[in-house]
């Protein structure tokens, strides 16, 4: 039988993410990859986790291995809420649930909000996992270009005037993936103003916010929200470890309740052992000291990558200068195609993500590419970026 | 702002599962609960897991804590496939993915197949997590009564003749939740015959199949399927531990590929540490010896529950006699209401799941109730069932 005739309208049109296709190429031995978005594994608290995991399974194994609560392991949920309140992100009467990675928060909120044909505005470029999630609920995607201080709010307002079906705006407000850009306070306020005026909701995805290594903190959009229009997504993936699949999300009670029901039909609850390990770690050790270490390492790697680029890349290739997070974004002059460039780079055993994977129209040609500096070692950063510089000079004929 | 006006058509009508509401009552101290579906925590291999987890985090922490593959940790995926092939459930060219609990398999397949209004046939009674999942994709649910040897296939065929929108049939073929009934080989063959004739797909959910403590193995529907109409869901929750959220699923390649894409937008991948713990456990120890122990304990508890019921329940209250799994199902004479009975039982500190939670029309009145025998101790089983017998005599006035 032909099972494709049975596929739902939600998935018929979906394609495996192009990033995944790139990842398959990364199995090549000796490749230097700036393509992923993974933390530096040397910074995982492996020794501490090993002790903690053993202790939990020996002493609290009945809880760690049994069915858990859909909303999350209560002590971790409470700790997360207190931290977000202390950071000024949440009010004391806001509620938080633990989810199986930040991505699940986005998915649950999308399932709870998006009807086919509803408009979702995304920053361009944006995070492919967000874009694909909205696609999987048959949303109509609209892209608004990023500027140095966040989304182009004039272009956004024009779009809102034209399209009455816009229900949501998706923003990675701080150290954006892929651009590394942090939205200014003014733009954050403007987004809330527009949300009120045009009656849409804001998804604020903030998995990188804790990883600031320079500049000044900017308040989250959630912290400025007075009417409950912001749905907030956070993650333990970048501050602890992504393999644990731990994230958290906060939204108005009536929405959060629906998300919890959806989570129950999706995976019942989040892995209990990982929630308990995370909770033990953040209470036994100082999470702030741990994060300070991450900031230092990523800041150093980012600086090294930018310096090497400035030395080795053609002058006409520009890059963003992130103040935190895991990514920076490069732009070749118009007319050059980052997919072509990628093919040539792969021949030299260096990988990155071409801009096309971050755009709504992923069939078009873009001169941009994303570079991750968290995973590779300092030595690899110098070697890989130098090689990319050579390939760029060759490809661009400069 | 009123966020309820923004909710999607998928979740507007959803209600928190009534089982969850019952679970809240179970916080009552001293309660004896036959309401859950949890394994006996005394059987969790806690000591072994503690050693294994420590070893993994110390020696393979970079893999255990880093992003993983959406399809699952390759060695566990391979092991699972080999086991299913050796059990005759899969062919060598079938493919398997690891999912975050069996529930996620059902959700991913549903997202990939169900358009709003598509018909899904469920056994009545059935598993509330399945029913709620289909509801969350706006399926039209049809119930077909269970008989002692599985679904009533005559009633099913009549339904199929009447409704051309039926795309799926959901069956828990072995030790069904909640009834404990195992479908006969004849009925399994008949289902496949009807699936061909009326062109629908079969979800075979088999989380309990390994837990047989009496009677003869019956081949899975999947193993009898020649045309790829069966989507198979299995789980490590009942044979290892549910808190780990590990399940697996097999389907035709074209569907499995869509499910993988949906999984990527849903939780990216399954918790890596738990997958590695499970893999180490099943390779270092004998999973068959472990399962033999579970079968023995659950068989003994089931027998004890049935014997106590036969002694203490009014004669007119009937129960099924499962050959495995975690549940048996009781039926009071017509006219009695298991929700009323539950209220009275809770006053005596004993809990179970009323039949209404297992039915498509969950507003109606049912004389049935589900009893779990895996979680409670033998002492609690005798004490709780004896108390229930007293309440039943009182409630039924016999």
Question: Could you describe the 3D structure shown?
Answer:
The structure is a homodimer of 398-residue chains. Helices cover 43% and strands 15% of the residues of chain A. Chain A is of the alpha/beta class and 398 residues long. Chain A has two domains: 3-44 and 289-396, Aspartate Aminotransferase, domain 1 (Alpha-Beta Complex), CATH 3.90.1150.10; 61-284, 3-Layer(aba) Sandwich (Aspartate Aminotransferase, domain 2). In chain A, the strands form three sheets. Chain A has an eight-stranded mixed sheet with strand order 2-9-8-7-6-3-4-5, with helices on both faces. In chain A, strands 10-11-14-13 form a four-stranded antiparallel sheet, with helices on one face. In chain A, β6, α8 and β7 form a beta-alpha-beta unit. In chain A, α2 (46-59) packs across α11, α5 packs parallel to α6 and α5 crosses α10 (253-266). The longest helix of chain A is centred in the C-terminal third of the chain and has 26 residues, at 287-312. Chain A is globular. The N and C termini of chain A lie far apart (55 Å). The interface between A and B is large, with 86 and 86 residues.
């Amino acid at each position: 039988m032909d099972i494709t005739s049975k596929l739902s309208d939600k998935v018929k049109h979906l394609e495996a993410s192009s990033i995944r296709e790139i990842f398959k190429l990364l199995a090549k031995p000796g490749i230097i990859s700036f393509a992923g978005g993974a933390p530096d594994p040397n910074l995982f608290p492996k020794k501490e986790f090993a002790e903690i995991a053993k202790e939990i399974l020996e002493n609290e194994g009945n809880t760690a291995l049994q069915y858990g609560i859909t909303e999350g392991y209560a002590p971790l949920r409470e700790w997360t809420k207190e931290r977000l309140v202390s950071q000024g992100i949440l009010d004391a009467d806001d509620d938080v649930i633990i989810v199986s990675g930040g991505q699940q928060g986005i998915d649950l909120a999308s399932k709870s909000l998006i009807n086919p044909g509803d408009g979702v505005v995304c920053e361009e470029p944006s995070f492919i996992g967000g874009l694909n999630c909205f696609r999987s609920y048959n949303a109509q995607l609209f892209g608004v270009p990023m500027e140095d201080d966040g989304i182009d709010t004039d272009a956004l307002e024009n779009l809102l005037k034209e399209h009455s079906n816009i229900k949501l705006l998706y923003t990675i407000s701080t150290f954006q993936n892929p651009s590394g850009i942090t939205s200014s306070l003014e733009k954050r306020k403007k987004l809330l103003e527009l949300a009120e005026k045009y009656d849409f909701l804001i998804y604020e995805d903030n998995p990188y916010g804790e990883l600031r290594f320079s500049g000044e903190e900017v308040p989250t959009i959630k912290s400025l929200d007075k009417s409950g229009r912001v749905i907030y997504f956070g993650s333990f993936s970048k501050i602890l470890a992504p393999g644990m699949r731990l994230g958290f999300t906060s939204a108005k009670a009536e929405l959060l309740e629906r998300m919890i029901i959806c989570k129950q039909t999706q995976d019942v609850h989040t892995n209990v052992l990982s929630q308990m390990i995370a909770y033990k770690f953040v209470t036994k050790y100082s999470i702030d000291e741990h994060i300070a270490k991450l900031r230092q390492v990523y800041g150093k790697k980012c600086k090294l990558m930018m310096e090497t680029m400035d030395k080795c890349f053609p002058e006409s290739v520009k890059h963003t200068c992130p103040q935190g997070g895991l990514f920076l974004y490069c732009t070749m002059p118009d007319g050059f195609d980052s997919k072509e460039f990628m093919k040539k780079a792969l021949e030299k055993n260096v990988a990155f993500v071409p801009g096309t994977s971050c755009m709504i129209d992923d069939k078009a040609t873009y001169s941009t590419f994303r570079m991750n500096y968290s995973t590779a070692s300092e030595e690899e950063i110098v070697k890989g970026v130098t090689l990319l510089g050579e390939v760029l000079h060759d490809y661009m004929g400069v």
